[in-house]
Design goal:
Layout (H helix, E strand, L loop, with lengths): L1 E10 L1 E6 L4 H5 L6 E3 L4 E4 L9 H4 L5 E4 L2 E3 L5 H8 L4 H5 L4 E6 L6 H5 L8 H15 L4 E13 L2 E4 L7 E2 L1 E3 L5 E3 L10 H14 L2 E2 L7 E2 L2 E12 L5 E13 L6 H4 L3 H25 L13 H5 L1 H5 L3 E8 L6 H14 L3 E12 L5 H41 L1
Parallel strand pairs: 2-6, 2-17, 7-16, 7-17
Antiparallel strand pairs: 1-18, 3-4, 4-5, 8-9, 8-15, 9-10, 11-12, 13-14, 15-16, 16-18
The chain binds adenosine-5'-triphosphate (ATP) and magnesium ion (MG).
The site of adenosine-5'-triphosphate has 17 residues, from helix 5 and strand 14.
Length: about 400
């Protein structure tokens, strides 16, 4: 891949979503302690705090946090999508990489935000819909190829969710240093309904299991990857192809085994999930360090290897952190807020991915015939315009003649 010219430094965008309180939490007597204060600020109150206890007041663990954007139970799926992800699309179709990932404790709404439901579709489908719309709007001048793959990382192994019978897949680095999943199914489709069906089907293949905290808890990290190749319709002997890669990631929950009452197999999974999440946390810590010269160990897990570019390289990246508003989740919420707060310091360097394709001599005849057609089309257009102009000039002369008589 050729260097796409100037690279621009960009800060990670961090959004925070507080989901609505649920029946189970209310049943436990939980109160709401996480509030959105304004479009960017969130405050987490200490549930142990007694407002009348003056002595403890200055030891308060109440804390406010600023993010690029904050959402609470009033935010619709569309609002969350528009304010976090929609802005990435134009870049992706013209050769820039982008990543959106959902982070947070189990049961806090990551899958809801990314996949959503049939009635309240999430970021995956909204993004793909708009992506295809944007492609259609520019398809007079540009030609596109869109490829989509959907995979999960479960127990540090990669499975193809569109074709699970392929077994476990490996990560490979191609000659340009881009990490690829070897042998993954890539589908090209531009029908939104078809895609939603594929995703829903893929999601059924995803390893999920009820835990005490979430009855449809994702036990794996799910990754939807969309690759868009754009080239000009006007052919040339060498042609520039722009390649944009978009990752949309629904992580497994960061959780404590005690909270989910996991035992046996589930407990082992937790350790693996946490290996990837721990590695992600370590990378985020190292990357957010001021000065940025701390060693970043991407090789510690599959997730961080795959996300190398998204975190420290060439990608516009958005993190959507999720929390519950309930007093019973205070510790998880505080950890997540601290983590997300740290991620704000991460910077990536964004540049366009350009690929130069040289056509083989055997293809020249087809290029020449395409160019001839294009010349013919333009000639006809000129003739048509010339004729129109002549007509309007003639009518002007007639007017003048009329005036003279
Ligand atoms: N903003 C929201 N509005 C309405 N319902 C929500 C919202 N967020 C989450 N929920 C509901 O809460 C439950 C748990 O959400 P979800 O499965 O998305 O959590 P998760 O973060 O993916 O958890 P896990 O890490 O265990 O996979 C689901 O039933 C989901 O529909
Ligand atoms: Mg989930």
């Amino acid at each position: 891949m050729k260097d796409g010219g100037e690279s621009k430094e960009q800060q990670l965008t961090v959004a925070l979503r507080i989901r609505p309180i649920n029946e189970a939490e209310l049943g436990e007597g939980a109160t709401i302690i996480a509030h959105k204060v304004d479009e960017q600020m969130v405050v987490l109150m200490d549930p142990m705090e007694d407002p009348d206890d003056v002595l403890r007041a200055n030891r308060s663990r109440e804390k406010s946090y600023m993010f690029d954007v904050a959402f609470d139970y009033t935010a619709t799926q569309d609002t969350v999508y528009r304010l976090t992800t929609k802005g990435l699309i134009e870049g992706v179709i013209s050769g820039y990489n982008a990543t959106v990932f959902a982070y947070g404790p189990t049961g806090c709404g990551k899958t809801y935000t990314m996949l959503g439901t049939d009635w309240e579709p999430g970021i995956y489908i909204r993004t793909l819909n708009d992506l295809f719309k944007a492609i259609e709007e520019t398809s007079d001048d540009m030609e596109y190829e869109v490829l989509m793959s959907y995979m999960e990382i479960y127990n540090e192994m990669i499975r193809d969710l569109l074709n699970p019978s392929l077994g476990y897949l490996d990560l490979r680095e191609d000659s340009k240093g881009v990490i690829q999943v070897a042998g993954i199914t890539e589908v090209s489709t531009i029908n939104a309904k078809e895609i939603m069906q594929l995703l829903m089907k893929g999601n059924k293949q995803r390893t999920q299991e009820p835990t005490a905290a979430n009855k449809t808890s994702s036990r794996s990290h799910a990754i939807l990857q969309v690759t868009v190749r754009q080239k000009s319709r006007v052919k040339n002997i060498t042609q520039e192809v722009r390649v944009g890669r978009l990752f949309m990631i629904d992580l497994a929950g960061s959780e404590r085994a005690s909270q989910t009452q996991n035992r046996g197999q589930r407990m082992k999974e937790g350790a693996h999930i946490n290996r990837s999440l721990l590695a992600l946390g370590n990378c985020i810590n190292a990357l957010s360090e001021r000065g940025g010269n701390k060693y970043v160990n991407y090789r510690d897990s599959k997730l961080t290897r795959l996300l190398k570019d998204s975190l420290g390289g060439n990608s516009r990246t958005v993190m959507i952190a999720h929390i519950s508003p309930a007093s019973t989740s205070f510790e998880e919420s505080r950890n997540t807020l601290t983590y997300a707060d740290r991620a704000k310091n991460i910077k990536t360097r964004v540049k366009r991915n350009l690929l130069n394709v040289s056509y083989h001599i055997a293809q020249y005849t087809s290029i020449i015939s395409d160019l001839r057609k294009e010349i013919q089309r333009l000639k006809e257009k000129i003739d048509e315009q010339g004729l129109k102009q002549l007509r309007s000039e003639k009518s002007d002369i007639r007017n003048i003649q009329g005036d003279c008589l």
